[in-house]
Amino acid sequence: MATILAADGGPVEATFSPAPSWQQAMKRAIRDGRSLCARLRLPETLASGVAQEQFSVFAPLEYVARMRPEDPNDPLLLQVLGRHEEHLEPGSHAATGVGSSPPEATLDAVGDLAAQRGAGLLQKYDSRVLMITSGACAVHCRYCFRRHFPYGEVAPGKLGWQSSLAIIRRDRSLDEVILSGGDPLTVADEQLAWLIKQIDAMPHIQRIRIHTRVPVVIPQRICDSLVRWAESSRAAIFFVLHFNHAAEIDDSVRGAMRRLRRAGVTLLNQAVLLRGVNDTPRAQRELCLALVNMQVLPYYLHQLDLVHGALHFEVDDDQARDILHSLRSTLPGYAVPKLVREIAGHASKTPV
Ligand SMILES: *Cc1c(COP(=O)(O)O)cnc(C)c1O
Ligand code: SF4
């Protein structure tokens, strides 16, 4: 058992110790809903085998250690445990079998397939492109719009990146490259340093942005070799992190953010508004404050992309606007994210 219940009901990291390296943290991650439940002293029937078959469970122990044992509604657990709600949705495979899909729920909700400029290169917006650097993630988030993306068709690694790099090198209308995925920080630093160096050598590229959730779940990922490539780049380096709840932030995470700041990296956060996880003014306020207190600025709060298996996380627009209103009236302006939704074909994320 990794955690023991403290007097106040919070987790105590009694026998848990972080893996010595991020690669080892990946190796020993929990990949099965039932063992996740057992670890948190929850009934194993909470885990759905069908959900897990559709999108596997993957949760590093470093992240699980921040969950409250015996709480089936823990906001971190809800993000990673495949539950029965996923396949009880109208129109999903395991429902009656006769219903058709709701028109708004699709496999490619955000138009990724239409925006491909090459294998693994997406351009939806002016002057910036998004490179799918890796198909892998360090955590599987049940609400993720990429749970249906055909990553298998994108060759990751140097060979797969070459064609994207050639396109970016030729296109002088671009000034920013976004490394995304999956998650770019699941790639080894030796390869990442090579990739950053290739991009950094293109004089028209002024900014390199890393979209990542790895430092949230495995803070040891912000290791010496990462800091070295981050601080040696000519182009400005931005990290857009993905924290959804204040309980995701502990001392090891704060340490990782401090290392990034010292390397000169600008830190932003994008969160997803999720029913049952962070859909109250209080939860959002705590998240925003925890972020700015470690000098990470809330950038976007996303309305959920409606994909199969994630509809039970949906929060309606009126409730979302109420939460934002409450944040604006209690927080400094820099601590309030923009509430947006992604609509295929629009020139930017769309304000709600
Ligand atoms: C969200 C997204 C971006 C980034 O948009 P910003 O508003 O600049 O943060 C860029 N490219 C694609 C394909 C995206 O989905
Ligand atoms: S792409 Fe991001 S949100 Fe989706 S599963 Fe990976 S880490 Fe989670």
**Distinct compounds present:** pyridoxal-5'-phosphate, iron/sulfur cluster
Give the termini separation: 43 Å
- Percent helix range: 25-40%
Q: Walk across the major sheet and give the strand order.
A: 3-4-5-6-7-8-9-10-11-12
Fraction in beta strands: 15-25%
Number of helices: 12
| Computed structural class | alpha/beta
Helix/strand order, N-terminal first = EEHHHHHEEEHEHEHHEHEHEHEE
The main β sheet shows up as: 10 strands, mixed
What general form does the structure show?
globular
Spatial extent as radius of gyration: 20 Å
Total E-strand runs: 12
Which keywords apply here?
352 residues, alpha/beta, 10-stranded mixed sheet, two-stranded antiparallel ribbon, 12 strands, 16% strand, globular, disordered N terminus, binds pyridoxal-5'-phosphate, binds iron/sulfur cluster
Structure explained in plain terms:
- The strands form two sheets. A ten-stranded mixed sheet has the order 3-4-5-6-7-8-9-10-11-12. A two-stranded antiparallel sheet has the order 1-2.
- It has helices at 22-27, 33-39, 49-54, 61-64, 75-80, 157-170, 189-200, 214-217, 224-231, 251-262, 281-293, 317-330, and strands spanning 4-5, 11-12, 116-118, 121-125, 128-134, 176-181, 207-212, 236-241, 266-272, 297-302, 338-341, 350-351.
- By secondary structure, the protein is α/β, with parallel strands linked by helices.
- Mean pLDDT is 90; it is low at 1-9 and 93-103.
- Helices cover 30% and strands 16% of the residues.
- Helix 6 packs parallel to helix 7 and helix 7 (189-200) runs parallel beside helix 9 (224-231).
- It is globular, with a radius of gyration of 20 Å.
- The N and C termini lie far apart (43 Å).
- Bound molecules: pyridoxal-5'-phosphate and iron/sulfur cluster (SF4).
- Residues 115, 122, 124-125, 128, 130, 178, 348-349 line the site of pyridoxal-5'-phosphate.
- The site of iron/sulfur cluster (SF4) has 11 residues, from loops.
